[in-house]
Amino acid sequence: MRKNTLSSLIWLRMARFTHQSNLLSNEFLKQFGITAAQFDVLNQVSIYQPITQSQLAVKATVSEGGISRMLTRLEQEGYIQRKQDWKTKWISLTAKGENKMEEAFEHQLAFQTSIVNECLTKEEQKTLYTLMTKLQKNTELKIKSSRT
Amino acid sequence: MRKNTLSSLIWLRMARFTHQSNLLSNEFLKQFGITAAQFDVLNQVSIYQPITQSQLAVKATVSEGGISRMLTRLEQEGYIQRKQDWKTKWISLTAKGENKMEEAFEHQLAFQTSIVNECLTKEEQKTLYTLMTKLQKNTELKIKSSRT
DNA sequence: CCTTATCAATTTACTAGTCAAGTGACAGCG
DNA sequence: CGCTGTCACTTGACTAGTAAATTGATAAGG
């Protein structure tokens, strides 16, 4: 039997947790008629609007092609609008999109919070956040340098 | 501006890290001609073989439909074989699959390990693993109970 | 025997993502 | 005035996943 390192076990736990919590989020958000990925993008738009597609792709850590497809879906649903200006398209929420976020944001936040609160103390959460930030900032750098 | 909780920030960091490290893994594994998802499944098969598809779906935290497609791809590539026995199909690695894992396993492990080692001390890694395990075990339970 | 239930696996229709090639509009140079 | 480059975005071909309906083989009852 092959031997694993502590690091690889951490990777596995993280991948499993992320995948599973995504399933739970999707199930939870079904009542609002949106998916976890859509919530994520709508949330980024609501924070940074108006924002260009390429900037939004960076914020959502998704490729330009990916954000293009996602926005097509969200536009069809009437949650966002794209305003062409020169070669750039500026993205913002429609009234319907604002309402949807108004409706869903707090519930989704409470949902995520309750899952974490159930098994970690405040102190543990702080520690986890610090460690995750270190890790994620590091991979972010690697991603950027690999795209040069 | 909407206020986030510590928990939701943890979720976001985790989602971003997982996504980005998946991109890096895919890039790294390109030299072996497999993807990170394929590596994951091949690894589970190598540990538990012979294993049925539904058991494998649980190990890889993927739906039955998902594992069916994935195995079709891996079978086409010649990495695994399915032996029909009654209504069950038993999955195991072919010689080619064994060789591929022999070739890729240690490198992938070293790759994952180096990324974590770069930014966290051994002590921090232990802490992170403990916290992640608590979290993941909890969502695992929730997933199971939601499927009843 | 024939029907029905069961259960693993598959298929269908979908979202979500990747990379890489293609489009379209403008900018600037000769 | 036209060619060429650039830049934002889109599209095509793909992997990877989901939920839900379907298939196919076997066991069990009437």
Automatic annotation (TrEMBL), chains A, B:
Keyword match DNA-binding: yes
UniProt keyword terms in alphabetical order: DNA-binding
Annotated coiled-coil segments of the chain: none
Keyword hit for Nucleotide-binding: no
Any one biological process term the GO annotation gives: response to stress
Pfam families the UniProt entry points to: MarR
Name of the molecule in the record: DNA-binding transcriptional regulator, MarR family
Organism this protein belongs to: Alteribacillus iranensis
